[in-house]
Amino acid sequence: MGPSIDTLDFHGVPALRLATRAGARAVVSLFGGQVLSWAPAQGEERLYLSDRAVFDGHTPIRGGVPVCFPQFAGQGALPKHGFARNREWSVAEQRTGDDFALVTLCLGDDEETRALWPQGFALELSVIVEESRLDMELDVQNTGDTPFDFTTALHTYLRVREVEESRLEGLYGLTYSDTADGGKLKRESGEAVLVEDETDRIYHNSVRPLLVREYDRSLGINNEGFPDVVVWNPWEERCAALSDMPPDGFRRMLCVEAAAAHHPIHLAPGQRWWGRQTLIAL
Fold it and tell me: Could you tell me the pTM of the whole model?
């Protein structure tokens, strides 16, 4: 079969299904502008989506790749992770070629967003699926008359077989803020990050490629434009407190997020910023 982009109802929310000729596939929800599923050609699902995720068109969807904007986590007065992840996005472009499928979604300010954050903005999220890779590019433009600062992230939930048996490589020597330990600044001394307890870290100025190693498979992660990497797993106690996660869900997921969280991005009127995250199944 050839490449295709089809509309579908995904648990009650409008979405697009992307597929390539080789068999790679993804699902992108218009609610939140959120990639919910991705599998490389002839491969397994590589994103974690909670089987208790809420699809009511109002509540942020637990899993996939939520878009955090204009605030990361609780770093400001806005609701946690901002408002982009629970807004309806529009389709700006969809296109296929011999070996890819691409969709671009957009979100702009309106009366409701300006009541929370009085700024003019335009977001574009481009999602490209190829044989073994997923590219997600976020573009932010200041369309208003005043400058603004923002923090942001592609809050990528990776599906792993067993988080305690997974290794995240590429962060050695970097300074990180340990949110799980009161925000203390620490230095990564291990050749690989191992998740053996609650983990919530913002690694600063990460420019190297990352690699998630599992038993018999690996996943390469390349970030451009995003200066930081967030690594998060709620572990047993915090996971049990999340109503939209199964009690053992923490064992099957590891968030490795492309982020601009340590220092806000400043945009003057008319200026743009972009960041990209690429996942490559190995």
Answer: 0.98
Taking a C-beta distance cutoff of 8 angstroms, is the pair 103, 18 a contact?
yes
Domain boundaries, the chain: 4-281
| Amino acid identity, position 73 | A
Q: Which of these is catalytic: 124, 130, 155, 188?
A: 155
Quick one: pLDDT at residue 184? Answer: 97
Which is catalytic among the residues 124, 130, 137, 257?
257
In one-letter notation, the amino acid at residue 76 is: G
Confidence at 103, pLDDT banded by 50, 70, 90: very high
Quick check: is 224 catalytic?
Answer: no
Is 155 one of the annotated active-site residues of the chain? yes
SS3 253: strand
**Per-position DSSP letters for 173-188, written without gaps between them:** T-EEEEGGGTTEEEE-
> Which of 128, 129, 91 lies closest to 107 in space, CA to CA?
91
Q: Is domain 4-281 given the CATH code 3.10.20.90 in the classification?
A: no
58 vs 75: CA distance, rounded Å? 22
**Residue pointed to by tokens 């790749």:** 65
H or E element that contains 235: helix 235-240
The Cβ of residue 102 has, within 10 Å, a number of other Cβ atoms equal to: 18
Q: In whole angstroms, what is the distance from residue 220 CA to residue 226 CA?
A: 16
User: From the CB of residue 75, how many other CB atoms can be counted at a distance below 10 Å?
Assistant: 16
Q: How far apart are CA 102 and CA 25, in angstroms?
A: 11
Phi and psi torsions of 162, nearest 5°: -155, 115
Residue 1 in this model has a pLDDT that exceeds 80: no
